[in-house]
Amino acid sequence: MAAASDLGKSPTSSDDPSSSYSSFLHFINDDQSNVDGESVASPQRPNDSNTYNVDYCASPRNDDDEYYDTLSNLSVQSPRSSGEFLPEGSEEGRDTIAALQSKTSLSSSSVNGGGSTTTTADVPIPTEMSHNFAVEHRIFLRAILDMLAEGDQFVNTGSNDTKTLKIGALKKSSRRIKGLWKSKYVEIRRGVFSYYDGHAKHKDTTRKDIPLKAATCTCRAVKSRAWKGAAFELSVKGGPRRIWVANTPGERQGWIQAIHDAMIGASVVRGDNFLDYQMEHDGKTKRWTLPKNSPYSAFIEQYLQVREAINGAESKQDYLKALSILRGKSIMIPIQWLKTQLDDSTPTAFQEADMSSGVDQLWKDLLRDSVEINGQVISGESFHGPDRIIGNLTQLIIHHNQYNSCHDGKQSSITEVQAVSYARDIMLATDRTRSGGDSYYCIENLCLNRDLVVICPTSTVAAPLSITVCGAGMIKSNQPITARDVSGWVSTRSHSGKPWRRQYLILSQDVLSCYKDADSRPHNLQAKVMLKGVKVGDSANTSQSSKSRKTSARIIYARNIKKHMCREFLLEDEASFTLWRDALEAASKMSTDINVSINTHPLSDLMSSEKDLTGKSSPYPIVNAEINVSTEYKVCTLDPQGIDNEDTWATLRTTFVQKFRLSGGATGRITRGDEVVRLELLEWHGERA
C-alpha cells in the first residue's frame, strides 16, 4: 500500500497489485445500467472476504434510485489495515478507515469486464443498506481527499530521500563578505533545497536545508551588475535573502522550475508554463516577459489596444467605438500574463487558497452548482451530488485509460489513487470560485471605466461547469529529445593524447559539472563545461589502454573550435552511450533566451513519450481532459434610465479554459496547460455582435 508521503501531486503505482484501491469508484452511467424491474441481485457474503457482489436494479423507482443505481456499480475495497496509508498523527482519519473496515463493501464487474460473479434473487437491496453504503462511500472519499491534502502539506527537512528532482553546482553569495562567491553542490527534493560545500577536498557531511513551502518561500529571477552569470533569489519568510548564480539563463530557468516543482503546498491548478510569464527584478523595476512565439501574442496586442481605448473614453460613443474592435472576434488571454499585469494594482486578485481550504470551498461550491461531464449533467443539489461528480469523473479517467492501455499492460496504467488525485485537481481547476474570479478580473481589467460603466453578470443562474474526458490513444513523439539532467561516473579526458580519468559528471541543462569524488555525494569540483554551441559526435573506441579494452566501449566528443575546448567521454555499454549522447546533443542545442522555459513545451509534447535506458521511445496511454466554465457579463451605464436597451451597452461572454494530460505508471503525472480566458462580444449597443 502506498505510504502517506507518496500520496502527493503525482501518486505512483506499486509493484504489489493488491496495493491499489481495488477498482475504487467504478461509476457506471445510467444508460449502462440494467433495465428497470428486471433481475435483482441479493448480497452474498463470501467465506473469506469482506465483499458483497451485487448487480442491482430496483423497481419501483424513487428520488434516490438514480444515486443508488450508480452506487450499485461502485467497487470499493476497504484498506487492509487501519493506518496503512494514513499520515502519522491523523487519528480521526484512522478511526474513519478503521470503522470502514468493519463494514461490508460492494463490488461489481468493471467497465471492461471484471471477474466478479453475481447471483440473482427476487428481492431488491434494502433501502437502508443502500443509504448506509452511500454514507460510507462519502466518508471514504472525503478521507482520501483529506489524505491527499495532508500529503501536499507535509515536508521533512531532515530526510535522506534518495529521490532527487535536481542536482548540480551553483554559486552562493557570502553573507559575511560582500562580493565573495562560494561553489555549492545542491540537491532538490520534494519540499527541501539542500546544499554542501562543492569545493571540499574531502567528504563534507555538513548539510544545510532550506524548506520549500509555497506559503513562506519565494524564488524569483534577479538581475544586477554586481555579479556575472544568471542569478536568482531564494528566500524564506523571516529568514535571510540568499542569492544563487547559475552559469546561463537556461540553467537558471531549470533551477527555478525545479524549485517551484518541489514546493510543498504549491498550486495544483496553475499551468505548468507559468514561469514563462515571470518577472525579472532589476532593483526596483520589473520586466514582464512573454514567451517567444507565444500563440497569444496577437490576442494580447488586441486586448491592450481595446483596454487603452476604453480607459480613455469620455462618452458612450467613445466607449462603444473602443469596444467595437472585438466585434466578430474571439480572443484568448493567458491568466498568468494577466496576473503579472495586475499583481501590484490588484493584490486581492488571483489569490489561491491552500489545499485543505481549497477542497472545503470546492465542496461548498459543488453543492450549489451543476457539472456537465461528457454530456451528462449532475446537479450538486441532488442526493450526494459532490460525491457523484468526483466519482463519475474518476471512473471516466480509469475507463479511458483502461481502453487505451489494453495492449500495453499495467506498467503505464493510471492507478485508482492517481485517478482520484487527478479528478480532485481537475475539479479544483473547474471550481467556480477560482475560474469565475479569474474570468471576472480579465473582463474587468479590459472593460471597466469607472466614470462610465459597471460590469455585472447577466443572470444569477450560471451554466453548468463543463468537463470533457477522452483518450488520446497510444502517444509516441516524433519530437527530438529535450534537455534533461543526467549524472553518473564516466571516464573523461581533455583530448585524445591524455589518459582517461574517472569523474562524476552532472549535466544540468547546458552546463556539465565534473567532480573528482562522489562516495556519498559529489564533492571536489574539478571543472565546469559550457555546452551551448559545442559540436557533439561519437566514434568507435580504438584505444588499447587497459582502461578501454572493451570492444563495446564508444567515445563521445564535445568540441568548440572557437573556444579551443575539447572533451571526450568513454562509455562502456550501449545504454549509457545512448543516454549521454542524446543528453549532450540536446544540451548543446539549448536556447539561452531568458523568455524560454527549458521545461516548457506545447501541451501535445509535454508528455509525448518516455525513453528507456536503451534510448528507444516507447508509446504509452494518455488521457486528455478539458474544462470550460462560461459566464456572461453586461456592461451597464452608471446613469440608468430604466430602458434596458439603453442602459446595457454591451454583453460579453467569458470562458475559462484549461487542458490537462494524464498519464500513469511510476512516472505518471498530470500535465496542466495554460489557464486561458476566451473573450467574446455577444451584443453591442443592442445589436448582435
From TrEMBL:
<protein>
    <recommendedName>
        <fullName>PH domain-containing protein</fullName>
    </recommendedName>
</protein>
<feature type="compositionally biased region" description="Low complexity">
    <location>
        <begin position="102"/>
        <end position="111"/>
    </location>
</feature>
<feature type="domain" description="PH">
    <location>
        <begin position="483"/>
        <end position="589"/>
    </location>
</feature>
<feature type="domain" description="PH">
    <location>
        <begin position="163"/>
        <end position="264"/>
    </location>
</feature>
<dbReference type="GO" id="GO:0005886">
    <property type="term" value="C:plasma membrane"/>
</dbReference>
<dbReference type="InterPro" id="IPR001849">
    <property type="entry name" value="PH_domain"/>
</dbReference>
<feature type="compositionally biased region" description="Polar residues">
    <location>
        <begin position="30"/>
        <end position="53"/>
    </location>
</feature>
<dbReference type="Pfam" id="PF00169">
    <property type="entry name" value="PH"/>
</dbReference>
<feature type="region of interest" description="Disordered">
    <location>
        <begin position="1"/>
        <end position="124"/>
    </location>
</feature>
<dbReference type="GO" id="GO:0043325">
    <property type="term" value="F:phosphatidylinositol-3,4-bisphosphate binding"/>
</dbReference>
<feature type="compositionally biased region" description="Low complexity">
    <location>
        <begin position="10"/>
        <end position="23"/>
    </location>
</feature>
<dbReference type="GO" id="GO:0005543">
    <property type="term" value="F:phospholipid binding"/>
</dbReference>
<feature type="compositionally biased region" description="Polar residues">
    <location>
        <begin position="70"/>
        <end position="81"/>
    </location>
</feature>
<dbReference type="InterPro" id="IPR011993">
    <property type="entry name" value="PH-like_dom_sf"/>
</dbReference>
<dbReference type="InterPro" id="IPR051707">
    <property type="entry name" value="PI-Interact_SigTrans_Reg"/>
</dbReference>
